Amino acid sequence: MRAVRLLLLVLGASAVGYGGWLLLPQLGTALPWLIGGPVLHDVLVAPLVGVVGLTLSRLVTNRLRLAWVTAGLLASATLLLIAVPLLWRPPSAPPNPGLPDRNYPLGLAVGLAVVWAAIVIVLVVVTMVDRRVTNRRTDRP
Predict the structure, then answer these.
(1) Cα–Cα distance between 83 and 107 in angstroms, integer?
(2) DSSP, res 93
(3) Which of 3, 10, 36, 119 has the smallest number of Cβ neighbours within 10 A?
(4) pLDDT tens digits, 76-110
(5) 122-137 burial, b if ≥16 CB within 10 A, otherwise e?
């Protein structure tokens, strides 16, 4: 077991070293991205997620509903993170006539609408089931 760990350590360190060697010629242009990403996360994203989570925990008291709303927010954040590069920068090359052109803002809007429509449907069903269970409990003697 010790030999396997040592082998994995050597392979991992070799991969990191090779990646650093490949990055070295581009370090001047990559350094702002390598530093800016973690700083942006720690200054903007993490506090925003914390405030949204705290607010949600105060507004949505049912744990099952809170879990579904949180799942919707996580799916929305994932879609937004995937879409940001496509929405933000202009195309780097002329369009390829062999590839279909896409309307990325519309695709993002449709994706978000589908996610939140599914969350709303689930929340309605959860509310209906919760009311039935509550009614059954109060009807019993």
Answers:
(1) 9
(2) S
(3) 3
(4) 988 988 888 778 777 677 777 766 667 888 999 99
(5) bbeeeeeeeeeeeeee
